[in-house]
Every structure is written in structure tokens, then in C-alpha cells.
Amino acid sequence: MSGWPSPPPYNLVGKHGVSPTFKHDDIARFNFLAQLNTHLAATVVPANATAYEKRVKPAFVAEHGREPTDRHEVRRAMLKDAHFQIWSALRRSSMELRQQNGREVVLRQLAALNQKAAALNRNSPQLKLDPTFVPPAYVSKVDFHCMPGGYVGELLPDDVGAAANYDIGIFATTAGGLGCYNDGAGLAVYEWLKKRCAGEMPKRILDMGCGPGHTITALAKHLPNTEFVTVDVAAPMLRFAHARAKSLGVNNITFIQANAENVPEPDASFDVVYTTIMLHETSNLAIRKIMAETYRLLKPGGLSFHLEQPQYAGLPPFEAFMRDWDSLYNNEPFWTGMHDLDIDQLMADAGYDRANMFQDRAVGVLDEAIFGKQKDTGEDFGRKAAWHLFGVTK
Questions:
Q1: 6-41 pLDDT, tens per residue?
Q2: Pick from 228, 349, 216, 367: which is nearest to 277 by CA?
Q3: Pairing of strands 127-128, 204-208
Q4: pLDDT per residue over 18-27, tens digit each?
Q5: Class for domain 184-393, per CATH?
Q6: Residue extents of the structural domains in the chain
């Protein structure tokens, strides 16, 4: 696994006020999964390209007299290849094992976790839940990432189980690549914003879809003079995210249960409106409404951006096929549709001027607190994560 640092041990995961406690076997399973996912990413995944170039594509050309023209033709051909079958099965199994281990840890102490979160959340004006709110079907009917109940499932009053499971498991899924607090995307956004804003940081920022709070809490910690507002449809995520942020000493965020399609905030009330790895978990109709909301909520001259993986248009068919794996095998039903959309056109339809649109990358920094000092061999070295960024100014 040349160029890839070994995953750090799971006992280096950052602790906060709603962190579950772990037994020896819990840690051993997560360590195994982190090692497995590193091996799959560093060694097994690249061999898919070899299989395609050496076996699958030549066989396709021999049969059709041409190379595959899109990811669908590549998929139908690759499904017959033993290496792809083995890798795909292992990757799916690793996600199922990650969910099983995470749920076992959380469910046996769920009541205690809920009590911890409730104590941190009690009477806080910065947590605004709506008991009458009904999450949209495109969230409530999907067990994203093989997680039973998805983001909104609740088993007990004041439930935070879904978020706690997400929080403890993503370290194993990414082999520590997002850092000990899983906040690599937030730190990447912070570094990108510093460059973009040239020292004059925004005063009011809206985050759409905070999940367990990894991104927004990192941003808010580094921008203590900025007011943050976030909306999410899932009460378990909001309860957990607020409690987690408060326990980490971050108090400049207001957490609101609401749909990003209809945010309960005034027109032109934010300097920045953004999403991180959220658009692919909404429907194609919802994305259009969300884009319209970003335009409504943004001040003139304000900045809106969205972190995602690259769109499929313009990618080689094999790369698009590999990136589409999550939609087919990882319970991400809207992944394909979202990555086939023209994001610039969606922003234009919402009212933005094409002349003000741009695309960029937000690149993470390897967490030396858990990996130690590593030799950097390039922008995508090892576990250094990078996200595609679609941006626009109003």
C-alpha cells in the first residue's frame, strides 16, 4: 500500500460529551474494518482498472467492434468480471459490518446516550425542534448507507442513536481520513473560505443538512465571531449535533428542524449558504427547490457553494461507472440522478448569473494528531480527501 498511511488505531477517535463508550471487541472490529477499507482502497480498487483494460474492454471491443461509450455499457461488461464481483461484495460487506458494529455499540447504551444529549440540550434556545415536522419521503423511506432507519429513525424519546452510530462509524469507513473528529470536510471548507474571502470572513452563514454536525462545528469553532444557522430534517441528527457542539465548547450555531427546500429565515439574510455532501441525498425535484432557496436567502454579493463528487458529464466511462457504485450497492438511490444533473444550469434556473459561477476543489489536510508526520507526495496523497466544489456569487 505504497503512498497510503496505515489507518490509526480506533482509540485515537476524538471524544466529546455524547460519545459512546467502547468495549475491547468494539474497538477490535472497527480497527479491522479500517484496515480492510484501506486495503480495498489502496490495493483492490486499482485492480478494477487493470481488469477493465486487460480483459473487459478487449472482450467488449471483440464483440461490438468499438469501446464502451458510457458507464452503463461498462457496468454491464464489468459485472461479468470476477475481480469486480469480489471487490464489490467486499465493499458492501464492509459497510454492513460497519453498521452492525456501530448499532451494537449504540443500542446497548442508547438510553444513557439520550440522557447525556438531553442534559446538554435542555432549555437551549439554539436547538429548535418541531414535533409536528414530517421529514420528506426521499429521506424517511431510505436506509442510507445500509443504516436501518436511515437518518430519521427513532426508537426512544429524545433519540440520538442514528447520529451516534454515524459518528462512531465514519472513522472506520474512511480509515481516519477525516481526522479524529471526522471534521475533515469542515476544515477543508474553512481553509478554502480563508482564501476565497481574503481575510474578510462572512458574518452569517447557513448550512443546509448538518447531519451529526461534523462540518459546521469545525467551521464554527474556527469562526467564533460568525453566526451560524443550520437546518436538517432529522431530529436525531439535530439533537446529537447540538449536544456534540456544546460539549466541544462551540456555541455560535443555531440548529433548526426544517427542510432545506423551505428554510424559516428571511430573504437575503445570509452572507454564505452552503451544503456539504448533501445534494445527492435529496430528490431531483428537491434539488431545484433547494437551489431556489439558496438564492432567496443569500444577500446580494453573497456566496453559495456545494461540496460533492464530480458530475458524470465529461468523465471517462470507466471512471463514471466506478463513481456510480454507491447508487447501485450502497443505498444511495439519488446518487445517479444528482450526478447526471447540470449543476450550473440548476443555479441559473434559480436566478444566478452564469458569469458569477465557478468550480473549484476543497482539499483536506491529513490529521497529524492521529497519523503523525507523513511525507506528502502530491495533492491526493494517501488519505488526504478532496471534494469538488460548485460555487456562485449573487
A1: 888 998 899 999 999 999 999 999 999 999 999 999
A2: 216
A3: unpaired
A4: 999 999 999 9
A5: alpha beta
A6: 10-122+159-173, 184-393
